Amino acid sequence: MSTSIPQRINDLRGAMSKHGVQACLIPSADPHLSEYLPARWQGREVFSGFTGSVATLIVTADFAGLWVDSRYWSQAEIELAGTGITMMKIRSAAATAHIDWLAQHLQAGQTLVVDGNVLGLASARALQAALAPKQIILNTQLDILDEVWSDRPALPDAPIYEHLAPFAVVSRAEKLAAVREQMQAKGANLHFVSTVDDIAWIFNLRGADVNYNPVFVSHALIGLDSATLFVPLNKVSPQITTNLAKDGITCQPYENAASALQNLNASATLLIDPRRITYGFQQAIAKDVKVVEALNPSVHKKSRKHPAEAQFVREAMEQDGAALCEFFAWFEQAQGQQRITEITIDEQICAARARQPHFISPSFGTIAGFNGNGAMPHYRATASSHAVIEGDGLLLIDSGGQYLNGTTDITRVVPVGTVSAEQKRDFTLVLKGMIALSRMQFPYGTYSTSLDTIARAPMWAEGINYGHGTGHGVGYFLNVHEGPQSISGAIPNSDMVMEIGMITSNEPGIYRPGKWGVRIENLLLCVPAQTTEFGEYLQFESLTLCPIETRCIALDLMSQDEINWLNAYHQEVLHRLSPRVQGDTLNWLKQRTVAISK
């Protein structure tokens, strides 16, 4: 849209007045509750100007507010300037802050509008519980953005492709059988799935409908003997249609999903995941159909990587590590010799990865933040706003790749010029937390959330904390963020137990607004440790292979055990990556993996 943000808000208010609506809620969501949204559903960004991945916009006749958590406070302050939109800071454990605000500020009989097709069922229930006692009307039937978003994009049309052997270790038929087994265990004969990474995993299909994650917009209705994929038909080739048919799968137009739910037979028992379906689709289900609510079976199945998948991921980590070594060798040689910006960092890393086998795309937008920019956990350099890498300080680089044989996500911090004692102290505290979690051994049955304090302890001891989670699940050539595990301060549930085969990030950090940021991240594979008289124990294998900067370490803060761990890690990195690099890159690798001592 060519209009300014204030004009867009005014246009939205005009439509609200026309429909007798007093408040409008625009979540960061699509009909699949995705993290990365196709352009058609980026309404929150279009009407607020805020480009972060998570936020909630609320507009009334005399107020517009954007609810954001601490990861985005600095970014939102900059991007909302001059828009007339107020940044509403979400404190920890306050995910319903915007709902509380609505309940407090709307009056009885007033109407809140939100598109039910993009409103999560769990969120809808929270809204209903908060608004009903005050007799506030919730209208989920109207997509009010359609009236004022004049150039709203159409559905994405990138073609779907198959994830094939050898990298697709488990066949489509086997995955469907595993899902159906869980359906029957829950007494269901049908299962409706909307989350695009679950669908991509179940059907061994991939796409390019959003940036970074190899997924495609679709819904699926799985029966005990057949399945239907609701997808834009122009995206599916005749060959894929034929291959799907061999496994009892038919394709129908994307827009037919809701009507399929409306026309279900009364004898159906439908399994849905209340945290992974929108309110609009839940409301579309025929009223006489029995509904069972439970976690999508595919969520747990895809989180526990098959041993052969884990082996492919190890190979992908070697490829990714080699690319990063190539980049860092170039970076050190280029400093002081040519103009390097945060944009240059992104370009060079992507180019290095693109030279590796099986590379498809970045797994998220590269975060290259120098000094103060590194203090914004989700900072993104742009052509109009970026820093030149010069002078003294710390450069934080968080990046990742999508390969046919795995998904990577890594953060490293490197010195530029002279590093201060305070910067070394922060770096070392973060490293101590990262090492502590890497070395952790824990009993089977441990909730992922229970591990969060392990990484934070060295920082807590110094009165320091960070506002994001310590670790998220990572897919297998799928979403770089997946569940059900989360190493964070989230309230745990029974689905969040650590299991063998799960891949989880380990990324503690310290952020000094306006000064610098430190985050060190490896991916960890959950593997067996030992069995004792007290039960079965699990531990982590460090998957990521790339040197950790030793020039930023305050050795006096490190224990001998921590130094031993780092030296052993670097020996593994050198051993695994040496055959994949040569010349200046190999020399750089050898220099950066030299053992350290007090």
Please provide a written account of the structure.
- With 598 residues, the chain is α+β, with helices and mostly antiparallel strands.
- It contains 18 helices and 28 strands.
- The strands form 8 sheets. It has a 6-stranded mixed β-sheet, with helices on both faces. Strands 12-11-10-8-13-14 form a 6-stranded mixed β-sheet. Strands 21-28-27-24 form a 4-stranded antiparallel β-sheet.
- Strand 5 (111-113), helix 5 (121-131) and strand 6 (137-139) form a beta-alpha-beta unit.
- Helix 13 (307-334) crosses helix 18.
Compact summary:
With 598 residues, this protein is α+β, with helices and mostly antiparallel strands.
Helix content: 25-40%
Q: Quickly count the helices.
A: 18
Structural class: alpha+beta
- Percent of residues in β-strands: 15-25%
Mean pLDDT: 95
Q: What is the first-to-last residue Cα distance?
A: 59 Å
Rg from alpha-carbon coordinates: 25 Å
Described by the principal axes of the CA atoms, the overall outline is: globular
How many strand segments?
A: 28
Spatial strand sequence of the major β-sheet = 4-3-2-1-5-6
Give a short account of the largest sheet. Answer: 6 strands, mixed
Low-confidence stretches: none
Topology:
Layout: H1 5-18, E1 23-27, H2 43-48, E2 56-60, E3 64-69, H3 73-79, E4 86-90, H4 97-105, E5 111-113, H5 121-131, E6 137-139, H6 145-148, E7 161-162, H7 172-185, E8 190-193, H8 196-203, E9 205-206, E10 219-223, E11 227-230, H9 238-246, E12 249-252, H10 257-262, E13 269-272, H11 279-284, E14 290-293, H12 297-303, H13 307-334, H14 342-354, E15 359-362, E16 367-370, E17 393-399, E18 401-403, E19 406-407, E20 410-416, H15 421-438, E21 441-443, H16 452-460, E22 471-473, E23 482-487, E24 503-506, E25 509-512, E26 516-519, E27 522-532, E28 535-542, H17 560-577, H18 583-592
Parallel strand pairs: 1-5, 3-4, 5-6, 8-13, 11-12, 13-14
Antiparallel strand pairs: 1-2, 2-3, 7-9, 8-10, 10-11, 15-18, 16-17, 17-20, 18-19, 21-28, 22-23, 24-27, 25-26, 27-28
Helix pairs in contact: 4-5, 13-14, 13-18, 15-16
